Automatic annotation (TrEMBL):
Signal peptide (UniProt feature, chain positions): 1-35
Keyword Ion transport tagged: no
Organism of this sequence: Botrimarina colliarenosi
The Pyrrolo-quinoline quinone repeat domain, residue ranges: 104-313, 337-451
Name listed for the protein in its UniProt record: Outer membrane protein assembly factor BamB
Annotated region (Disordered), positions in chain: 651-670
Organism placement in taxonomy: Bacteria, Pseudomonadati, Planctomycetota, Planctomycetia, Pirellulales
Record's keyword annotation contains Signal: yes
Superkingdom to which the source organism belongs: Bacteria
UniProt-listed InterPro entries: PQQ_b-propeller_rpt, PQQ_rpt_dom, Quinoprotein_ADH-like_sf, WD40/YVTN_repeat-like_dom_sf
Keywords for this protein: Signal
Amino acid sequence: MPQRFSFSPASSRRLFSPLIAALGALSVLSGQAIAADWPVWRGPHYDGASPETDLVDHWDPAGGEGSHLLWRSAALAGRSTPIVMKGKLYTLVRDQPATELEGEKVVCADAATGEVLWKHRFNVYLSDVPDTRVGWSSVVGDPETGRVYAQGVCGYFCCLDGDSGKLIWDRSLHEEFGLLSTYGGRTNFPVIHEDTVITSAVVIGWGDTPKWSLMAKPAHRFLSFDKATGELRWLSGTSLIPEDTTYSMPALVTLAGHRALVFGSGDGMAWAIQAGTGKPLWKYPLSRRGVNLPPVVGPEGRVYIGHSEENMVGNAMGALVALDGTMVGAEKPTDLSGKEIWIKYQEMIGKSGPLLVDGRVYAISDTAKMTVFDAATGKAINRRPARLGRVMRGSPVYADGKIYACSEGGTWTVWKPTKDGVEKVDEVSLNGEQVNASPIVANGRIYMTTSEALYCIGSEESVAANADSSVPAPKPAPIGDKRVTQVQIVPWDALLKPGEKQAYRVRLYNAKGQFLREAEPSRVSFGVSGPGNITKEGVYKAPTGGKADTALVLCEIDGVAAEGRIRIVPPIPWSYDFEDGAKDVPLTWVGGRVRYVMREGDGNHYLAKPTELPTRPGAPTTKLGTRSQMWMGSPELANYTVQADIQLQEGVGGESGSDGPSPDGPPTVASAIKLPSAGLINSGYTFTLFGPNQEARLYSWCTHDRRTQAAQSMELKPSVWYRLKLSVVPKPADETAIVQAKVWPRDEAEPGEWTLQFEDKAPQLQGSPGLFGDSKEAEFYVDNLTVTPNN
């Protein structure tokens, strides 16, 4: 039950070997037929379609003879769409819901019987996500290795052995890279491409200038990891300052010879990027808000995607668009403009992924109405949309010549395409069970997850008819161009201690993003911009000493160059009084710059969190980011105390004149006193002075009212320096952690007793120190920040 992370740069280097490199080169895209599993929630070809036949048309959720209900499992209930691979079903669900121990878990069950085989539990921590939105994402399976990968709502990301559930590696995406986990709960889905696993989120990292890739400014960014080791291969982003977090499942397809990810982004655009390198291929402005719909892509490269928000032009809501995904660099190599074929406005298709079948697009609106469009022209074929229910969140699946779908309210329907649209084959009521997941098909069985259970639908006949079913694996495009035009230095981002070494590898790609080979170090010219040095074999050594710093590792081969980023952070203790003359916050802090600025007053220097943040050049400021978290170092730090002086300022009342939307955070108590909230982070726990609520609070999951926590009302005054102290003592042997916090006016003596404390029986045993703050109401200041080991 206690949580500890397994990944470290050193362990990653030990794992890498020529054998692993050889295995990684064996792509699952072998061109051979594979079992009719469902390793991705949108299906093996990312289109919601199955080749299986002889499936049942009708079933009865009550069960019994003739019901076609093979099994029902309440233990697998939730909102996540499951996957099936090699006879096992995998899903994400809440663990011990509505208790002080609640978390999230990956569950593996026998796909034929529903028997639970193993579980992998992890905490939800440092997140605003409500408990009802846990399990938003879906597990992805790797048929090549049998491993499964999962992204939790808070940013925990893991690789598990599919047979045993053994943890292979994990990453803390929020602490390491600045993943944004909001009250809305929207979480993305991982994708397997060759020897990598790729996921995405709105990321606010470290580095606020082009030299450091502007990572301190938010963007919807994709992160590609070595699927065997968890080492970061590349990171690629869309437009800066997106309006929303989103959950558009990427489609992994081939476009004009490029193996590409096609997806809707938080910036309101549809994008295509190379799956091997992250290089953008094209983008199409679709909405003024984020795009959540999973696209469907036809074999000729035509992309169909929609949304149900504001359009870029006019005042109509929603649209469905067809794009020519093959028009990569149509006008010139740097041309990223997506090519529209047709667009249908006022189609509120923003949640349920469309199907593409026999030249038709079957699209279901947010209000559960299905319209059939001619894929070539966009013309509606059915005169009246078919009614599936009242609200639609999940996506339909096409199999056995039929469309299976379930509305959010639990109305299950089966449809058969006709000349004029569709006709209903069957309808079943799940008696109000809430449905956010999508049905899937594997080995003669249909699986459907609701808030109350996971249903397995089928018959002995349907299972037997599909016993030998298989789907052709996509064939890798032949590598005709052997010229090196793209270079990838691995890892792209590293966190080191002073004096620590990092071995680099250089991977070579052609213009279409196809991997050619790994470069021989003797042919690569290595260099360093910043402190430290690198050998001709590509081994970087950080400088010794106690100073935090940053560097770029440079490489060049055949005139093509690449860069990798390094943070150098010394072991604790740390002490920051901000009197060293620095004009900005430390560059090494994840989510630090832009969100915090240096201030001076009364001859003293300190941090300030502004009420407005800059956006794009020439654009107004925004409230987005005024509620945020910041991390100072490694998520592997443990058994330490964080202390700082914090001063709350009083707001002028009401919101400022920003044109930007308010942050996506949990609601606060209305108060005539406009005070901010500010606090300390230690090992996944937060100690915060909540200004609007006039209380001090200690917690790991702020929106969960039953998860282990403590709170105390107190009169918080503006313009008073308070000293906060947060200590976390892990007890691995007892599977607990002792979490203690105190606050007092800085001008007074430190009290002997802790203000708040608890013993967490589902503990975080380690994590990065940092700061939490919500300054949308007013600024707050931070001074004399220290991190010290516990005695």
